[in-house]
Every structure is written in C-alpha cells, then in structure tokens.
C-alpha cells in the first residue's frame, strides 16, 4: 500500500493487516504506553478543505501518539479554481517536505488526484471526499464489529458470514460506500435500506442487497445495524420525507430496537440525531458501539499512518 | 481536586497548594528550565466555544512547557442545540483519549456539566463560562498580589488582612465573581464598586462589601485596586452611562491614581481600555501589575494542569 | 542581527551568513536528519494578522524541524485600534515567554514597531508587512539563484555580476522591494519592468534600473527573470490594463520564454496565475525554480530562526 484512498481497492490481506496493526496500537494505548516513537521526525499535514472537527481531531491524536510533527492546514473558501489550487497546494507541501498528507475535500476524487498526478511524493490518506469514500471510517467500523464478534481472538480474522444492515441516505453517504466494499471484502453480507429516492438503481453494481423495507431487513436478526446520519441541510430537499415520517419509516425506533436480538450491534458514525434516525434507547444501550467506534478510530488511524509512513521513512 | 471549575468550592488549603505549586513552576521558568517532562504523553484539549486568544495562548504555553500533547478545538457557530453538542463533543474527546480538557464556553455552567455528567473521565479546567467564573484568572490575580505583599516569603501564605477594591461592571464579570470567592477564602477583604445598574442587590449573598462611591473606597488606601475591563459591546446598553461619564465616575483617572499610596497595586485582567476604565499613568506605573499578571498566568495554569493531571496519570 | 525586519539593513556578510547557514540546514534535510534539537525549549509564536497559508506553513515546518514549541496566533478582524492592539498583543507574548515572534501584518512597519518599541524582548522576523518588505522571501530567492549559478560551490559567495529582471506590479510588491535591496547588496544588477502605473517614479531612489519594455529587458539575456504574482483583487483597479492586455504586454508568454537563453532561471514567488503573468511552458520548464524556491524557503527560515534564537537562548 502506498496510499489509502478507497476501500474498493484494498485486498483482504491488506485490510486484515491494517486491522491487526490497529489491534497492536490499541494494546499499547490500553497499557498506557500513550506515546510511540514510530513517526518521530515525520511531518504529517492535515489538509482539510472542508470542516470536520471530529475526524481532524482523531487523526491529530493518532499522529501525536506516533510522535509525528503535525501541521494543520484548513483551506476553505479559496477563490482559485479547485484543480489549480490543489496542484499548487500539493507542490507546496511536497516542497516543504511533508511526509504524509491526510486530506478531506468536498470534491469526489480529490485524494486520488493528489496521489496520482505526481505533484507530491508522499502517502495520501483520504479522510473523506465528497459523497465518495471515507476509508478510515469503514476500517474503524470493521475493527469495531470484528472485536464485537470475535473479542480477543480477532487477530487475523475477517467478518466471514456476518450480516450488516446499513440504513439511511445511501445515495450521499461516503460512509456507506466505503463500508460496502470493505465489509464484503472481509466476507460479510451487506443489506442497504433506505427510501427509494436515497437508494438509487445506480448502486446495482455494488456487492450488496437493497431493500425499501426496514422491518423486513431487521427481522433477519443481523449482526449489526449501521444507522447513517441524516444531514440536516438535506432535509429540505425533495429527496426527503418529512422528519417525523422519516423517523417512523427509516429510524431505529424504540420498538424496532426492542425487536432486535441482543447480539445485534448498533453502529452509528456520529454525531447522532437522536429521535430522528436513532432513538436514545438504542444509542445508549450496551449494544451500541458508538463510543467504541470513536475510540477505535484513533487506533485504526495510527495503524494506517504507521503502515504507510514507515515504508516512506526507509524508502526516501 | 478532580476539576477546576469554580473558586467558590476551593478550600484555603487547595488554593494555597495551587499558588505554591505555581511558585515552583515560576522558579523553573526563571532558571531557564523551560521544558518540564511532567505531562509527557498526556493529551490536553483546548475546547474553545468562544474566542479568547489571550487565555488560549496562555494555556497552550503552559501545556507545552509541561511537554503535553496539545489539540486545539475551536467550536464556533455550531448549529446543533448546545446541550447535545457538548455531550457529543465530550464523548468524542473521551473516546479519542483526552486526558484533560480546558473549556471556554459562553454559557454559564457548561464546564460543570462536562465534569458532572460522566460523558468524559478527565479533569476539566474552566477557562471562563459566560458571566459566571474564570478561576485561573482569579488564581493568577491572587498569586500576583501574594507576591507583591510577601515577595520571596510568599509560600504557604494567604492574603490575610489584605483589602482589595474591585471596580467596574461587577454584574457581568466572571473575573470579579471568581476573585470575590478566592480572595475571601484566602483571608482578604473585598469591596465591590460600580454604577448601581452594574452592582445589583442580588450579590448580597457574596462575602464582599459594596459601594457606589469609588473615591470613598480608594480613600481607605487598599492593598490593591482591580479595574475591570469595560466591554465595548455593552457600552450601548441602558446599563451604561456615557463613556466620558463612566471614566469620570468609575475610572482610575490620573487624579485618583495620584491619591493612592505607593503600596497599592494596580491590577487589570487586560486588555485595557486606556482612558476609559484606567488612565495610562496608572497602567504604566511601577504599581501596575498588568504584565506580571499575564506572566503569572502561565505559572498558575501549569500548576493547575500539573496538580489535576498527575493524579490522572497514576489513577488510570 | 537581533531581528530580521528588512533586507535594506542587512550587510553583505550578514546576508551570506544566512545563506551559508541555510546550506547547512538544507544539507541536514537532504541527509534525512529531519529533526534538529537546536531550538528545543524555545517557544516561537507565529503572529499572523493576515492570511498566508504558504508562508505560515513554511515557517511552521522550519520551527518544528528545529524542535521549537510552536504557537499559532491568527489575529484577524480585531476591532481595537491597530497600534494599541499590537502593543497589547506584544506585551502578552512577552509575558507568556515567547522567545521569537514571526509576524505577518497588513500594515507597513508593524514588525519594526514590534522590534523597536520595547514591548517584547525577543527576535522579530518579518513574514511580510503591507506593501513593504518580505525579507525571508528575498533570502530564499537569493539562495535559489546562488545555487543555480554556483551549484555545490555556493558557500561564501554572493551574486556578483548576475543580472535579474523583476516583472509586474512593482508598486505593491513587498517581494520586489525586499529583493531589490538584497540582490544589489549581494552584487547583482536588477532591472524592474512593469506598466507605468505600477512602476512609479517614486522608486528612483532604489538601486535598480527601470523599464517599461519587457522585450528589451529580456533581450539582454538575464540570469533570472522573476515574475511577480498579479493579485486578482487589483485587476479591477484603474492601475490595470485588461487581463489579456496584461498577459500580452507584461506576461512571460510562450514566445518570450522560447526567446530566453537556457541558462536563464524562471522565478516566481507563487502561487502562479498560469496564462496571466506566466505561461505554463515557462512555469513547468527545467529553467523554472518555482518548487526549489518553496523547498529552499524552509532551509532559509530554519537558518534565520537558528541565527536569531541561538543568541537569545544564551543571552537570557
């Protein structure tokens, strides 16, 4: 692996290597060895063309625990045309000696462009691009689910035979997209559920089943239900039913939650809209993995940075 | 002490422990031992829901001198409801492993909420909440005054018998509030002076005298006069007399300053409105402690962080 | 040297000392000794009253490679009067123990004011003040040109006999201003070229020739052509011809570039307006030094910080 751009191109072995390395990282954190010297002298730039405090802080915590030098770069509202600006920025980062770049960008494909155009010779980590991919989110979800299923015996394992139901605005969700590829690569079965307007025919090529009937999907007793966040700014679009209607049709309500087996994990990438896509009873139950997901995010990002940058350090 | 939320709940022994530890911190800085390893591997998050460059920089300098890893988080203009947003943020910080949180928030009680709701298991330091409290400001004021009164023999001492006059917009001042509690806990006598509109009857429960007559209060020859900053945005409220009227009635003018004993310290939390609440002659005199206050702020914040976090490191 | 405010007051020996030290810094970076302990325990504040991501990141990378503690301070939109605000800020930085201040300010002379008023006892590095000076940019330009002319034998040398043509909006360019002084101090000959509205008689006192005829200036076969960036926001001023007219008259077009000797370096401070002041053929040619300039910026800033701060560490 030279970059981490998408989960669709990760092989099963690569994905399991990242998850196993994240287990090592988590273990050091649990033993209170908070600071590892692995990336001392390595400069990581967090290049955020879009606000995302949660993801930026998670990466920044991961980078600092690996002893990297961190430079934050919030590039909003640039008046320059997007392509030119990205090239100029990339060349600047290359020239100042950035050893790795974590990029968040509102345009699909910006991280790929950064990786492929040769403007910068450093590992690129996609921290979310448009409605396209968010690979570290999918990796932390897979890590969390693997731990729930296999506990301390997780290492080396995939998610073979697991069944995950992903619910909500599939059309606009980079979380859903990255998860579909990674979960199926790891051997899981994925069912996508949402309103017809948000679950388009165009996703027929994905390795996932689709359904407009949440109750039917939950009746199978899946290993995990992943509720996507509803973006408030989309609620006024014609895509969307009314809020109350949405909660009734597609939300993980109290009643739906009580109907699930106790072994079903309740996942959410956060931050949650309680009472909309998820009821508080579900969000705060022992089955909820919401906070584990956030905590595991640091371990998974440490693993990805470590694997991508340790190669760099020797190679340059 | 698990948190530093308010000076009203600090015991005299706790307050003196913080001030004495701040003396130790100041001593290392004066011996040019700028960097202490005390908080190596400890992650401190500066969570600022309100702009405050001076306070943020002072905390950041304190954290870096203790070798902590620092993550700055400026959370402005969030559209989510305040309570929910704070909970979500707190849980995120907990999950990424924050070891201490310095919080500035426009709403009274936000730091307490963070400390008490169990969302995060880390020391919380209140860096100013609404018109409520600003405990590290009061501690640095007490530290500065103790040094002025007792010099090198400060250690272990309180402020017994000292008399401090605090002047200005008492009603809206978290600095005044935190100082009243701390100064009296340390044995001092406090007189609050201001226009009737800004010095309400509601403060009768405070352990302080009140007066509408600045000249009478100064005639006692207090050990310190603390001039509060007038917020420009409040000057158009009906609370306020005209600017020139304010300076004449409640400002530390040249004439008033010349009438004070040379032993009276002139304090101000900064930044000053010269010519409004304080004349330049007073601000720049040897009696002025304005710059000492800023410098002492770093030592006091180092002390508070050290005392709160060193417990954490062992306990977790 | 106590500060780095302007290139007009740098002696030839001082300038060469900085360039030679930058060679040492570049050598450690090329040997992959990325992190030097030189400024451990030294706090550097980047005080930016004006946005400039490129310059801020370059300084921040330089500071972190020298192991300094870095505090970023973006002070925009302050409502206080400029002078007072700068004084208050400077005194605050002094009081919290800042060991060096890198300042960018929209007003000419702000760095000088900071250095001369005694508000703070620390080296001040001018990172751009108004239309006045940008000395580290000129130093990195001189460093880049010296390397192009003398290669590995650069150390100790100036730019004697070299001829540099600077083209564009001379009137508003701090880059041009700082370069004129430094290049001539190092023995080079400078020709300034631009439209009459942007190349005023007032610069007669500068040690440079002026011309309104770009083709005539290029016909001399200079050692370097430095194209200045056209600020989009100025294009609507009456100073300016229409965009296409500007490119035709004052741009380094394909045709003009092809007419230059291969030994002529093509310089630009970045970011470039391709097709406006510079054609892509010129910008991307082997003669272009644009990316070298950015990379050399880190070495030159490491050198300046090292030279100014190492004195401080011993002296205080």
UniProtKB/TrEMBL annotation, chains A, B, C:
<dbReference type="InterPro" id="IPR036901">
    <property type="entry name" value="Asp/Orn_carbamoylTrfase_sf"/>
</dbReference>
<dbReference type="GO" id="GO:0016597">
    <property type="term" value="F:amino acid binding"/>
</dbReference>
<feature type="domain" description="Aspartate/ornithine carbamoyltransferase carbamoyl-P binding">
    <location>
        <begin position="2"/>
        <end position="146"/>
    </location>
</feature>
<dbReference type="GO" id="GO:0004070">
    <property type="term" value="F:aspartate carbamoyltransferase activity"/>
</dbReference>
<feature type="binding site">
    <location>
        <position position="271"/>
    </location>
    <ligand>
        <name>carbamoyl phosphate</name>
    </ligand>
</feature>
<comment type="pathway">
    <text>Pyrimidine metabolism; UMP biosynthesis via de novo pathway; (S)-dihydroorotate from bicarbonate: step 2/3.</text>
</comment>
<dbReference type="GO" id="GO:0006520">
    <property type="term" value="P:amino acid metabolic process"/>
</dbReference>
<feature type="binding site">
    <location>
        <position position="54"/>
    </location>
    <ligand>
        <name>carbamoyl phosphate</name>
    </ligand>
</feature>
<dbReference type="GO" id="GO:0044205">
    <property type="term" value="P:'de novo' UMP biosynthetic process"/>
</dbReference>
<keyword id="KW-0665">Pyrimidine biosynthesis</keyword>
<feature type="binding site">
    <location>
        <position position="270"/>
    </location>
    <ligand>
        <name>carbamoyl phosphate</name>
    </ligand>
</feature>
<dbReference type="Pfam" id="PF02729">
    <property type="entry name" value="OTCace_N"/>
</dbReference>
<feature type="binding site">
    <location>
        <position position="55"/>
    </location>
    <ligand>
        <name>carbamoyl phosphate</name>
    </ligand>
</feature>
<dbReference type="InterPro" id="IPR006130">
    <property type="entry name" value="Asp/Orn_carbamoylTrfase"/>
</dbReference>
<dbReference type="Pfam" id="PF00185">
    <property type="entry name" value="OTCace"/>
</dbReference>
<feature type="binding site">
    <location>
        <position position="82"/>
    </location>
    <ligand>
        <name>L-aspartate</name>
    </ligand>
</feature>
<comment type="subunit">
    <text>Heterododecamer (2C3:3R2) of six catalytic PyrB chains organized as two trimers (C3), and six regulatory PyrI chains organized as three dimers (R2).</text>
</comment>
<dbReference type="GO" id="GO:0005829">
    <property type="term" value="C:cytosol"/>
</dbReference>
<feature type="binding site">
    <location>
        <position position="137"/>
    </location>
    <ligand>
        <name>carbamoyl phosphate</name>
    </ligand>
</feature>
<feature type="binding site">
    <location>
        <position position="174"/>
    </location>
    <ligand>
        <name>L-aspartate</name>
    </ligand>
</feature>
<feature type="binding site">
    <location>
        <position position="104"/>
    </location>
    <ligand>
        <name>carbamoyl phosphate</name>
    </ligand>
</feature>
<feature type="domain" description="Aspartate/ornithine carbamoyltransferase Asp/Orn-binding">
    <location>
        <begin position="161"/>
        <end position="308"/>
    </location>
</feature>
<feature type="binding site">
    <location>
        <position position="229"/>
    </location>
    <ligand>
        <name>L-aspartate</name>
    </ligand>
</feature>
<comment type="function">
    <text>Catalyzes the condensation of carbamoyl phosphate and aspartate to form carbamoyl aspartate and inorganic phosphate, the committed step in the de novo pyrimidine nucleotide biosynthesis pathway.</text>
</comment>
<dbReference type="InterPro" id="IPR002082">
    <property type="entry name" value="Asp_carbamoyltransf"/>
</dbReference>
<keyword id="KW-0808">Transferase</keyword>
<protein>
    <recommendedName>
        <fullName>Aspartate carbamoyltransferase</fullName>
        <ecNumber>2.1.3.2</ecNumber>
    </recommendedName>
</protein>
<dbReference type="InterPro" id="IPR006132">
    <property type="entry name" value="Asp/Orn_carbamoyltranf_P-bd"/>
</dbReference>
<comment type="similarity">
    <text>Belongs to the aspartate/ornithine carbamoyltransferase superfamily. ATCase family.</text>
</comment>
<dbReference type="GO" id="GO:0006207">
    <property type="term" value="P:'de novo' pyrimidine nucleobase biosynthetic process"/>
</dbReference>
<feature type="binding site">
    <location>
        <position position="134"/>
    </location>
    <ligand>
        <name>carbamoyl phosphate</name>
    </ligand>
</feature>
<dbReference type="InterPro" id="IPR006131">
    <property type="entry name" value="Asp_carbamoyltransf_Asp/Orn-bd"/>
</dbReference>
